[in-house]
Write a structure and sequence with these properties.
This protein has 206 residues and is an alpha/beta fold. The protein contains 9 helices and 5 strands; from the N terminus they run βαβααααββαααβα.
Length: 206
Amino acid sequence: MLRVGLTGSIAVGKSFVSGVLAELGCHVADADALARRVVEPGAEGLRRIVEAFGEWVLRPDGTLDRAAVSAVIFRDAPKRELVNSLLHPLIIAEQDELMRRWASEDPRGVGVVDAALLIESGGHGRFDKLVVVHCRPELQLERLMRRNGYTRDEAEARIDAQMPQEEKLRYADFNIDTSEGFEETRRRTEEVYAKLRALAKAEARP
């Protein structure tokens, strides 16, 4: 199975690309969903976060107060790095287990892990190919303000907290520009999918 990492910065259209790849027949996992799994009540990730920060990170029902933690770590880079160091190994292990299962079920398939911090976490080296989704910076800012209701300053702060798009593109085996809207993005995604499918078949050939 061809292992593909799909990444991109905030509000560039990565979720749409991920959805198209799933429609085309790829096995697709959302790293955010896996991240939620490792901090469920009783999970190792939640234990680590409580141990590092204290009981205030929990809601009354024992679940992680994600909004409260996010508000703190967004403003505090060392705390953000601590949370990432505690959770990323667990999330990566979940991804790897899922890809092993896909590979046993569909050796000629294409397995895609959709993760915003794939490069930042150092996890990108585990993949055969890396697809980076991007768009024009002014469009990214506009989309983020519209989607989340942020002011310009709030949106710019969140964009600036991430690795720049140009830097992510240096890691790309394939890139998908979403600047021209859904139809063009779908066409480009289908084009990239065809290349990934060919690579997967070639890789599985005895």
